[in-house]
């Protein structure tokens, strides 16, 4: 039997100000019993932790009922509980909100065996459980194994200090959380069959009890979404379809296998091909793939560099294309070049393969040369199609070969710029190499979006993924009409896409919007109609509080419109002043409108910050002249745009406190943060992640420093333009910095070496300025792993809370002296 409990929650205080307030029993829920009538408790078995952890996810769900061994158990408020449970586990859950980072202690009385979880994470202790909680909404679940008398159960909360108050709620909506954004299910890879009737998709999500291990499931489905087959340990990104859509090839447990989707029989066609990857059907009985080999280094004590590329750990691996006969298992070599030969495309009707090679050639920016070669498999002859300084991709079409490259491709064929401007070759353009050998054609000179990739339909049209201002869109290039048409995907940001080869054309697409999470859709190209196949919003974001989004553009002093957007916290009180964060990149790409990502604007808004994202001069997606201003500028225009944009933002949003502004960026954006700190005192606190402090050392030491500088500093070097390399480098102006600055870097960063942050840290320390340096051990240019990602997000927000909200407690909790 269950009797009504006496549960008390102390919501405030310490010392003489300690005030006990009874927990409102209508705001705490009870469920039980959760087992059979067996008296054996989990703690009496060797599997206690696993039993509890397996139950937890079901208790976290907002469901009001739970099926347990054929019996329905319902959550009910404690005020309705009037009987004593004799056997079986029971559980309590309640939600609370905080308006700042808080710390305190839960004390349980009357519960002999309890497992306490805060937001899915276990709290340690027997009767006392210390907590810390950030701004937002939180859930506490208590699983009890043994309660002798529910009348004697008491839960106390003791805050660490006066401001560590929590408020119990029964809100129907909840603020976004870091775990929600990271752990939510997403479609990480997709592959659509050539006939458009089937697809393979990989779904991935995380659970607190699995820590950093992702839970992935790959399924073969028909276009209606019915699961036909499950592929364990396989990603859809590694799956390739046969031309007739009757089979797929995949790699699993070091075996290359073919699945017949008619009878689901599996045939293994190769095993233990170490270094082989990218298996595709050349025709129904032949696979084409790449096979790499790394020669043994005879020098055990030294590394004798053979060129600039040798800084790359994989530079000495040589990759070549091969054919595999499915029936006999015989492997045939396609190329024997001493250079890595990469497959760009192939055509089994022509019996040819397009490949690229990169001979060492530093003669001109960006100090890399790409050879485009066609191999005729009928006689194994090679035809050099061209040598290019800018080159991204090549795909066959009936009339020739589509090429994506920068404006300077083929002696500047794609330029749409004033003669005195240098092109930014990160601004991808579309070209056609004709079958008849005539001069290549520039197809996109007057098309402002930057083209990143393409897939070709059977009729010769191409589906292009492009950067269109701050969006990632799909366009159709109509080959017969020579025009571009935007496809209606329903997304601001297309993440993955896969194209069928049918004449009507179908495109399977994953993506999101700035204020809506990821979904999976099918687009019919001919009709330009979209059908949603799966949506993560009802799965992981039901009743979530999403920031309001507003567009905010302005015209800079040179007359160019600068785009931006503003995220407003949910239910923002505009009668009060609020802190704000200004985010930018400033490099060759705009900050896309993804719902989440490494820099989660919606999460920052949920933490009470107004967020302004600005797209300064120099990014691709706004036209060639806009992107060309990135070349040889190194922040010259970008800093002016950010400063002007911030001032215009303050004028347009009077409820933003001009004395509580934070700014941050990463990589080139980290460089911009440091540079801005030398130019303005507009900001109250700044964060630079993996930023460049000395353009010269980045140019010479970053893995891709000299290649990137081949565009960003085109034709400029420390010996012929020393002022660019010194006067635009923040460390040379460190004595002008007055703003508190946090430098974050991975100590294994190969893109922007950690010494770039050390340069600035050393300078500011010697100058007696307020500077912090946080290095993530073993991390490269990005912080990816789940627990590190949460720590990194917490670090940035805690730093801003300390400086913009006068709340140092979170920072002190993370980085206790």
TrEMBL record:
Keywords, sorted A to Z: Hydrolase, Signal
Domain of life: Bacteria
Signal peptide: 1-20
Family annotation (InterPro entries): AB_hydrolase_fold, Peptidase_S9_cat
Pfam families with a match to the protein in the record: Peptidase_S9
Domain Peptidase S9 prolyl oligopeptidase catalytic: residue ranges: 601-806
Protein name: S9 family peptidase
Annotated source species: Pseudoalteromonas aurantia
């Amino acid at each position: 039997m269950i009797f009504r409990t006496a549960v008390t929650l102390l919501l405030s205080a310490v010392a003489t100000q300690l005030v006990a307030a009874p927990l409102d029993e209508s705001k705490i829920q009870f469920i039980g019993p959760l087992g059979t009538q067996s008296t054996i408790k989990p703690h009496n078995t060797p599997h206690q932790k696993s039993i509890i952890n397996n139950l937890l996810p079901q208790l976290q769900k907002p469901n009001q009922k739970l099926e347990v061994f054929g019996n329905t158990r319902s959550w009910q408020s404690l005020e309705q509980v009037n009987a004593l449970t004799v056997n079986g586990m029971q559980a309590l859950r309640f939600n609370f909100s905080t308006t700042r980072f808080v710390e305190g202690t839960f004390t349980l009385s009357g519960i002999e065996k309890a497992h306490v979880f805060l937001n899915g994470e276990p709290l340690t202790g027997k009767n006392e459980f210390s907590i810390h909680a950030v701004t937002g909404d939180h859930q506490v679940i208590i699983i009890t194994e043994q309660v002798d008398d529910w009348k004697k159960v008491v839960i106390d909360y003791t805050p660490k200090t006066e401001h560590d108050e929590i408020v119990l709620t029964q809100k129907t909506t909840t603020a976004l959380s870091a775990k929600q954004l990271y752990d939510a299910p997403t479609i990480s890879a997709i592959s659509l069959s050539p006939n458009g009737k089937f697809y393979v998709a990989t779904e991935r999500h995380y659970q607190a009890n699995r820590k950093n291990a992702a839970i992935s499931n790959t399924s073969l489905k028909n276009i209606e979404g019915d699961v036909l087959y499950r592929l364990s340990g396989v990603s859809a990104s590694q799956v390739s379809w046969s031309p007739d859509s009757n089979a797929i090839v995949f790699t699993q447990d070091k075996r290359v296998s073919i699945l017949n989707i008619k009878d689901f029989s599996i045939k293994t066609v190769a095993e233990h091909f170490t270094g082989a990857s990218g298996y595709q059907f050349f025709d129904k009985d032949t696979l084409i793939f790449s096979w790499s080999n790394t020669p043994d280094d005879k020098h055990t004590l030294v590394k004798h560099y053979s060129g600039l590329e040798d800084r790359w750990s994989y530079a000495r691996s040589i990759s070549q294309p091969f054919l595999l006969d499915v029936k006999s298992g015989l492997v045939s070599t396609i190329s024997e070049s001493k250079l890595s030969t990469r497959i760009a495309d192939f055509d089994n009707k022509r019996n040819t393969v397009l490949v690229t090679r990169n001979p060492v050639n530093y003669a001109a920016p960006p100090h890399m040369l790409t050879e485009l070669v066609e191999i005729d498999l009928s006689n194994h002859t090679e035809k050099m199609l061209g040598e290019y300084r800018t080159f991204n991709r090549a795909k066959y079409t009936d009339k020739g070969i589509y090429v994506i490259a920068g404006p300077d491709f083929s002696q500047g064929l794609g330029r749409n710029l004033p003669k005195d401007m240098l092109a930014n070759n990160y601004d991808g353009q579309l070209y056609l190499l004709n079958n008849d050998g005539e001069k290549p054609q520039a197809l996109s000179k007057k098309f402002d979006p930057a083209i990143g990739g393409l897939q070709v339909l059977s009729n010769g049209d191409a589906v292009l993924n492009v950067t269109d201002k701050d969006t990632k869109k799909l366009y159709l290039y109509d080959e017969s009409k020579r025009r571009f048409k935007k496809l209606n995907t329903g997304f601001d940001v297309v993440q993955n896409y896969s194209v069928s080869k049918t004449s009507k054309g179908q495109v399977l697409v994953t993506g999101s919007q700035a204020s809506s999470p990821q979904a999976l859709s099918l687009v019919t190209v001919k009709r330009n109609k979209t059908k949603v196949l799966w949506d993560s919003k009802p799965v992981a974001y039901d009743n979530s509080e999403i920031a309001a989004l507003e567009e905010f553009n302005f015209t800079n002093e040179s007359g160019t419109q600068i785009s931006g957007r503003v995220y407003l916290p949910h239910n923002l009180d505009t009668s009060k002043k609020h802190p704000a964060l200004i985010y930018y990149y400033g490099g060759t790409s705009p900050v896309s409108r993804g719902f989440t990502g490494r820099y989660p604007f919606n999460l920052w808004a949920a933490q009470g910050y107004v967020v302004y994202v600005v797209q300064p001069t120099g990014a691709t997606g706004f036209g060639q002249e806009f992107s060309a201003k990135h070349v040889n500028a190194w922040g010259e225009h970008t800093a002016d745009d950010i400063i002007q944009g911030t001032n215009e933002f303050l004028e347009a949003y009077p409820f933003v406190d001009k004395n509580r502004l934070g700014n941050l960026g990463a990589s080139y954006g980290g460089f911009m943060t440091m540079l801005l700190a030398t130019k303005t005192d507009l900001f109250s606190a700044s964060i630079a992640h993996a930023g460049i402090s000395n353009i010269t050392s980045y140019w010479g030491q970053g893995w891709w420093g000299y290649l990137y500088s081949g565009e960003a500093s085109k034709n400029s070097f420390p010996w012929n333009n020393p002022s660019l390399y010194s006067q635009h480098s923040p460390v040379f102006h460190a004595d002008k910095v007055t703003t508190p600055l946090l430098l974050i870097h991975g100590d294994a960063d190969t893109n922007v070496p950690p010494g770039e942050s050390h340069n600035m840290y050393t300078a500011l320390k010697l100058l007696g300025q307020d500077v912090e340096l946080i290095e993530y051990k073993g991390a490269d240019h990005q912080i990816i792993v789940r627990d590190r990602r949460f720590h990194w997000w917490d670090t940035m927000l805690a730093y801003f809370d300390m400086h913009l909200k006068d709340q140092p407690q979170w920072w002190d909790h993370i980085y206790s002296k």
